């Protein structure tokens, strides 16, 4: 009996973020929205970080994340696999980010065409330098990103989840992280240090660019 009670106490700490999201969907369908509200608070920083990583401005990122949650609620009754909700949210947020970037670039192009009329003396249109990164810069950045995330997947699952959450803010809320992954608050800092050291070692072994090792 004591062993059973001990196992029950451990179970909440072992529930993954994906499991909590699935549980929240089922609870919401039963008319109990509190679980979903908790997941929204927990996952919004993750979604916002995901959107910002696609090049979306902060205010626009807020709108994309809000639209993502609205879309989830709208489709709540048609979700066939609740355990896929976490992935669905990330994919939806990423697609929303891409659309926001396309919309911003289209608006910038329209403004440029509107204000960049022909030169009054020559009649020729002045060429406006592009603010977009050069192809070489994009290729180098993409290559480093691929290397980082390939190596990142070699970390233990516990490290991957912790580093994702810690990276969401300049001043991470350790209490929030503790509740999210079931790790004592006092262990988060030391564990984070060990995980980062392991990541740097893996990057060194992979021959990654110094940019990542000194980040």
What does this structure look like?
It is a single chain. The protein has 215 residues and is an all-alpha fold. The protein folds into 2 domains: 102 residues, Orthogonal Bundle (Rna Polymerase Sigma Factor, Chain: A), CATH 1.10.1740; 76 residues, Orthogonal Bundle (Arc Repressor Mutant, subunit A). It is 72% helix and 0% strand. It has 10 helices and no strands. Helix 4 packs across helix 5 and helix 7 crosses helix 9. The chain is flat, with a radius of gyration of 22 Å. Keywords: DNA-binding, Sigma factor, Transcription, Transcription regulation. InterPro entries: RNA_pol_sigma-70-like (IPR039425), RNA_pol_sigma-70_dom (IPR014284), RNA_pol_sigma70_r2 (IPR007627), RNA_pol_sigma_r2 (IPR013325), RNA_pol_sigma_r3/r4-like (IPR013324), WH-like_DNA-bd_sf (IPR036388). Belongs to the sigma-70 factor family. ECF subfamily. It holds the Pfam family Sigma70_r2.
């Amino acid at each position: 009996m004591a062993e059973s009670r001990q196992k029950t106490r451990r179970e909440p700490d072992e529930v993954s973020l994906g499991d909590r999201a699935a549980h929240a969907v089922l609870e919401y369908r039963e008319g109990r929205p509190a679980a979903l509200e908790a997941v929204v608070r927990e996952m919004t920083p993750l979604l916002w970080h995901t959107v910002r990583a696609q090049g979306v401005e902060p205010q626009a990122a807020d709108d994309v994340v809000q639209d993502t949650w609205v879309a989830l609620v709208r489709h709540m009754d048609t979700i066939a696999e609740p355990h896929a909700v976490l992935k669905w949210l990330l994919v939806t947020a990423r697609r929303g980010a891409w659309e926001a970037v396309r919309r911003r670039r289209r608006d910038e192009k329209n403004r440029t065409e509107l204000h960049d009329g022909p030169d009054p003396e020559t009649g020729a249109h002045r060429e406006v330098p592009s603010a977009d990164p050069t192809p070489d810069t994009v290729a180098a950045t993409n290559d480093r990103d691929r290397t980082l995330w390939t190596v990142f997947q070699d970390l233990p699952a516990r490290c991957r989840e912790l580093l994702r959450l810690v990276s969401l803010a300049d001043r991470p809320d350790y209490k929030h992280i503790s509740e999210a992954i079931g790790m004592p608050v006092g262990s988060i800092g030391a564990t984070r240090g060990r995980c980062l050291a392991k990541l740097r070692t893996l990057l060194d072994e992979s021959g990654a660019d110094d940019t990542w090792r000194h980040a």
